[in-house]
Specification:
With 664 residues, the chain is an alpha+beta fold. The chain has 10 helices and 40 strands. Belongs to the glycosyl hydrolase 39 family.
């Protein structure tokens, strides 16, 4: 069938690198998980939080002193391996079912000392296939085949967030630590065509204590028989440089998240902008006295990591009568004293950060708080004038509205234009929350906002300023009543971000970490948290957004209304991009008809791109980062018309990309 390309939202629904140093340490008995079963394994999940301290871990086979314990200085329960012998094994193993599929294993690892060998294996029929370990000389290491690879130092009594992606079909693995890919294309240590278990332990020759927690495995068959070329190389924000992809770091003004806890992950994500809320009430707790310490630390750290702050001027301050609300849904300042204090704080804020911050946003979701659009427009103009007076080159956004509220935007722009103050507005930001991120209505409203901008504020741009999906059911906030999982969250993020970027819209992923509201957890974070807001681990959505950030940056431009035809029985979403210098293309494709689900089953489709530009096309699954060659038998070209056959498509974005446009 042929799918139309309506305006605004186009719909129709081996090189190997191991960039590490060699190490001289050898690993002994290590932590591992084992299994026996069908060709595709069951998921393994062990958090130990519901197990009584001192008890064995259900589902784990152990030797030596291995029990669930509360870890001193932390707030969560973990599996402890205590080795007091130099002649006996101390190990713990769990099974997930023998599989030939790709296995993704995540876990946290902690050593109580830096003088013992502690390790974790993925095991198959041939024995230890993939290993990550801590040496008795304070070094982290892994293996590339039989060669030991040094990963740098580790410290005792610190959790390490570790992720292994192991591919039995080609006997290679990738290793990530704390959100950073540390090795790619590692050859298996032993010859095997399957994986079956994860095992953890302390070396027989050493004494010491180790902890493992948040053990998670998934197994997923390759999406295609096409040759596997590698995985997308993640890039830090500093390496990316500039892009239209941002990440949300909201609610730090109310201490619902902990910036210092997730700071190491921020730059590694690859998003080049971060949305921060200025926190008048947190900065001015005594009238006329500003304590910028908390915000200085955040702005300076983000900037040092190559992430540009987008600073929001909100909320109110209760130390002033009529000072407005200091949280979501709060009112703007109204009294003469409070407005004067607001003006002073805004001026002081811009003066303090004008050499580090150029983008500002005035208030958050005024329509949600019931603030009339005309009242907000007057408040916006008042505030923007002070920002612009202090920083003439400032870029100012408003209204940061909940949803896509076309009538509210219209009234705001009409009021602003009628007062001759449209020049103070550089962009409209909005927060669309829909179970299906490809919902046709959403982008119809976006087109209406574009038309209003053209009419009343020519030159202003659009920004999707806050949007995300939970990773668990019964989550606080928007979309929290639906039955989300980490997999469906990942797909949702990728669909929203890729769709926005394909329409030339600057877009933000909300949020860096889970948010701890007073009554409940908002699980929209890319990072899973403990009850004290420290980070447990990077969710699959973190790695998926990291991949997208590494591919769609300022070196490519969006191709809105990108034309295509397909034989797919399901309507597809297609978004096109082209390299600014070469014109070579990247085309995102997915089934966008429904809310993302938990199936990873792909359907092969034919896709014809009449305006294509490819010389060496490859297939990329953005969610996993895996890259495959598209054989000559499965694509043809006639002039600019490129036809691709047997393209595996599902409800998460995949890319057909010219090989020159991606980095392995």
């Amino acid at each position: 069938m042929v799918n139309p390309a309506p305006s605004g939202s186009v719909r129709s629904r081996t090189g190997r690198t191991v960039p590490l140093l060699l190490s001289g340490a050898l690993v002994g008995a290590l932590i591992s998980v084992a299994s026996a079963g069908p060709a595709t394994a069951a998921n393994l999940s062990s958090t130990f939080d519901a197990v009584a301290p001192g008890s064995p871990a259900p589902g784990w086979t152990t030797s030596g002193d291995v029990t669930v314990q509360d870890v001193t200085g932390t707030v969560d329960r973990s599996l402890r391996l205590r080795d007091v012998s130099t002649t006996a094994n101390t190990t713990a193993a769990a099974t997930f079912g023998t599989t030939t599929s790709t296995v993704v294993a995540g876990f946290r690892l902690r050593a109580a000392q830096s003088t013992a060998t502690v390790g974790v294996h993925l095991d198959g029929s041939g024995g230890h296939s993939v290993t990550v370990a801590m040496s008795p000389t304070g070094r982290l290491y892994t293996y590339d085949g039989a060669t030991q690879i040094d990963l740098g130092t580790y410290v005792a009594n610190r959790w390490y967030d570790i992720r292994l992606v192991a591919r039995p079909g080609i006997a290679t693995a990738d290793l990530h630590i704390d959100g950073e890919r540390r090795a790619a294309g590692l050859r298996f240590r032993t010859s095997t065509t399957d994986l079956a278990s994860l095992q953890a332990g302390v070396s027989v020759a050493d004494t010491g204590t180790a902890y493992i927690d948040d053990v998670r495995t998934t197994a997923e068959a390759s999406p295609t028989a096409w040759p596997h070329l590698g995985t997308i190389a993640p890039r830090t924000a500093a390496q990316v440089g500039t892009s239209q992809l941002l990440v949300g770091a909201e609610t730090l003004d109310r201490d619902y998240t902990n910036y210092q806890a997730y700071a190491p992950y921020l730059g590694r994500l690859g998003a080049t902008g971060v949305r921060l809320q200025g926190g008048w009430a947190k900065t001015e707790k005594t009238k006329g006295v500003y304590d910028w310490t908390w915000l200085d630390r955040i702005v300076d750290d983000a900037t040092a990591r190559g992430v540009k702050p987008w600073l929001q001027l909100s909320y109110g301050n209760g130390i002033y009568t009529g000072g407005g609300g200091s949280g979501l849904g709060g009112q703007i300042p109204t009294s003469t004293e409070a407005l004067a204090a607001w003006d002073a704080w805004v001026t002081a804020m811009v003066k303090r950060y004008e050499n580090r911050v150029t983008e500002w946003e005035i208030w958050n979701e005024p329509n949600l708080a019931g603030i009339p659009a005309t009242t907000y427009a007057d408040f916006f103009a008042r505030t923007a004038a002070r920002v612009r007076a202090e920083q003439p080159a400032s870029v100012i956004y408003g209204p940061g509205e909940a949803g896509i509220d076309v009538p509210y935007t219209n009234d705001f722009l009409v009021r602003l234009s009628g007062q001759g103050k449209s020049h103070l507005l550089d962009g409209i930001s909005y927060h669309p929350y829909n179970p299906n991120p490809d919902d046709v209505w959403t982008y119809q409203q976006v087109d209406k906002i574009r038309a209003l901008i053209t009419q009343y504020a020519p030159g202003a741009v659009l920004r999707q300023g806050e949007n995300g999906a939970p990773s668990a059911p019964n989550s606080f906030g928007a979309l929290g009543d639906l039955d989300w999982t980490e997999l469906s969250q990942t797909k949702w993020f990728l669909r929203r971000l890729t769709h926005d970027l394909g329409q030339g819209i600057s877009t933000s992923a909300f949020s860096m970490s889970d948010l701890h509201y007073p009554s409940k957890i908002n699980s929209k974070g890319l990072l899973q948290t403990n009850s004290d807001k420290s980070i447990r681990y990077a969710k699959p959505s973190y790695y998926a957004v990291q991949t997208l950030a590494s591919v769609i940056d300022s070196t490519v431009t969006a191709l809105p209304a990108y034309p295509f035809t397909t034989d797919s029985a399901t309507t597809l979403t297609v978004q096109g991009f082209a390299n600014r210098d070469t014109g070579r293309q990247i085309v995102g494709v997915w089934n966008g008809t429904t809310t993302p689900g938990d199936s990873t089953t792909r359907t092969p489709v034919r896709l014809t791109l009449p305006d294509g530009n490819f010389t060496d096309p490859v297939y990329v699954d953005v969610r996993t980062g895996a890259v495959f060659d598209i054989p000559a038998a499965d694509w043809t070209v006639s002039g600019s018309t490129h036809t691709f056959r047997n393209v595996p498509v599902y409800d998460s974005p995949v890319l057909i990309a010219d090989r020159s446009a991606i980095r392995l």
